Amino acid sequence: MNKSDFKTIANQRKRLKPTTEINGFKVRPGIYQTNGAMRINEGVCFTVHSIGATSCTLLLYHREGKEPYARLPFPNSFRVGHTFSMIVYGLDITEFEYAYSFDGPYDESRGLLFDKNKVILDPYAKAVTNQSVWGKTKEENFVYKARVVNSGFDWEDCKRPGHAFKDMIIYEMHVRGFTKHPSSGVEHPGTFEAIKEKIPYLLELGVNAVELMPIFEFDELDGNRVIDGKQLYNYWGYNTVSFYAPNTGYTAATEYNHEGDELKQVIKELKSHGIEVILDVVFNHTAEGNEQGPFFSFKGIDNNIYYMLTPDGKYYNFSGCGNVVNCNHPIVQQFILGCLRYWVIEYRVDGFRFDLASILGRSEDGSPMSKPPVLQNLAFDPILGGVKLIAEAWDAGGLYQVGSFPSWNRWAEWNGRYRDDMRSFLKGDSGYAWAALQRMTGSKDIYAAGGRENASVNFLNCHDGFTLYDLYAYNEKHNEENGWNNTDGENHNRSWNCGVEGETEEESVLSLRSRLRKNAFAALMLSRGCAMFLSGDEFCNTQFGNNNAYCQDNEISWLDWNRKDRYQEMFEFCKYMIRFRKEHPVVKGEGKAAVCGLPDVSFHNGRPWNDYCDDETRVIGIMYAGRTEDDRQDDVVFIGINTHWEPHQMMLPEPPADHCWRVAVNTALPHKKEADYQKGTVWNSEVELCIRERSLIVAVMEPAGRQRKERKD
């Protein structure tokens, strides 16, 4: 709605009077343009939609009440089209909770499941009851209900940081796991509030965006069980209960009728420090599951519209989680679009990462579409015009669209090929050198053909899979504690334990692992495209070999902040590489053509201007060159990577007159201060150096006089 619509609604509120009475409550037809429950001056307006229902009843409960104290059927005259809307007068939003019941045809073979005895949660609920205590066991005959929320949060002069896509350094975190460990040192561990306490840490690290794993209301008790005496939960939260409501289990304080304020305050603080907020959203499936799953929302409203069904009324399962949301049905499209608009307007989020986004590109029969309407609508929506749209461009049904996800030059992708190709190359596998050159320089072999810009989110590790530490400590996954006999999780991790599985005290192994971790993080920061890494990777957090810790609400998933002290060198190195990326915009592809005549990107595999690769190539060189936007100087950065188990000589291109190369990174050396890299690197000549086995170097071109002065100092 635009401003004039809201003005009209505001004027309507002032003059709307009751027209009739239902079961002792004064009521009148509602405001049909709204969705969900909205407080008005003298009552509350309730609006909900169903195409198949023959009737709808509003259920009112006292706070934490088990049975409704009032049932208010919507009169037929209060229904316009498929929309039920009613204003109920005399309600105090602090004193009641609400739900609905729908009546209509029941025919499983046609996907019609109407049952007037079922209590149905408002899909537009802004807050869900009985969810605020994490892990609290549900009572017998538990039902979801909603609360009406005040939306008077004061954003003041909150501005969007508005970082360019190529400037983004995304820090993926689980809200609870980020600070739940006792070592986190925060006052309210495991909460939104604790993120605010850690903002100084994020600023020190240098990231400029956080990607929050699911924070829509979800059911952590879904599939909960005890394995070897340990309580397991649906910890990650990829099982949405309510798309408009924040997870109140992540709040430090109870927020009756003000749900979302704590999250908004955190977002406001992050943005005030230049840190964007991206939400990981799950529109591919819901917590209602399949035929054996719970029945509390879409199933009771329009099951055959909101879910993809087989011809006999069963649930398709391209999500691997029991059901699939029918995203390209017009009704569902409107719901998704409205939801995302709500989070942008009410919570000021800067972007969304769409879990298993290829499902959003399937038609109602499950087949892939070339121009999925929902994706196109999101790409061109004016409210969403300034936010990042990031797709996990695959699904559990075998559809893999990295490089071909329908984008309209608006959608970016988690670049799964970057992760896979770079992991293989960095551990020394044969046949990946050319792929590594492509991935580090923007994956133009994947994205350039379609004219796509700002498409690649580069990452080596995320919540799903090994941490960076575990990537070089384990050959095999160790998910035994998940309770599935180690059958869950990815089997092909492209990892390497460096000779010993798991923890060891063997110094040679520890040294090699440290070098490989630095190589990986440095390569990520030196790659063109948006960079993303998993929280805790900067100080070697471990999940003890578990690569699918979705159910582990314990030390396996919680960040152990003690490791920041233990691996301080890695933390300082990561800070340094993030700063280096920011200080050299040529790495990101910014700037003008270099005055010195060097190309924007060139390859130097062992010797200058050599781009030849074969299956045994394990030494690559990349040079970025450009002139800073202010025309003050050329910015030339050379990256050499040796993934071979032997040292190699590497010859850098001859610099222009009165210029020379300065080594800024050498992962074969301890990270202390930058000057140590220059002093510790072995040069055979002004342009040839020795690059140690399994190590990475970065050299920066600069005027010779400056380097002579530094060497003298």
Write the layout of secondary structure elements.
Blueprint: H1 3-15, E1 20-22, E2 25-29, E3 36-40, E4 43-49, E5 55-62, E6 70-73, E7 79-80, E8 83-89, E9 96-103, E10 106-107, E11 112-113, E12 169-173, H2 175-179, H3 192-197, H4 199-205, E13 209-212, E14 216-218, E15 225-227, E16 230-232, E17 240-246, H5 261-272, E18 276-281, H6 298-306, H7 330-347, E19 351-354, H8 373-380, E20 388-391, E21 411-414, H9 416-426, H10 433-440, H11 444-447, E22 456-459, H12 468-471, H13 507-525, E23 530-534, H14 562-566, H15 568-583, E24 601-603, E25 619-627, E26 634-642, E27 648-651, E28 659-666, H16 674-680, E29 688-691, E30 695-703, H17 704-712
Parallel strand pairs: 12-13, 12-23, 13-18, 18-19, 19-20, 20-21, 21-22, 22-23
Antiparallel strand pairs: 1-2, 2-8, 3-4, 4-8, 5-6, 5-9, 7-8, 10-11, 14-17, 15-16, 24-25, 25-26, 26-30, 27-29, 28-30
Helix pairs in contact: 7-8, 9-10, 13-15
List keywords for this structure.
single chain, 713 residues, alpha/beta, 8-stranded parallel barrel, 6-stranded antiparallel sheet, 30 strands, 21% strand
Tell me roughly what share of residues is in helical segments. 10-25%
Rg from Cα: 28 Å
Which percent band covers the strand fraction?
Answer: 15-25%
Major sheet: 8 strands, parallel, barrel
Look at the structure and give the mean pLDDT: 94
Low-confidence stretches: 708-713
Q: What characteristic shape results from the CA principal axes?
A: elongated
Number of strands: 30
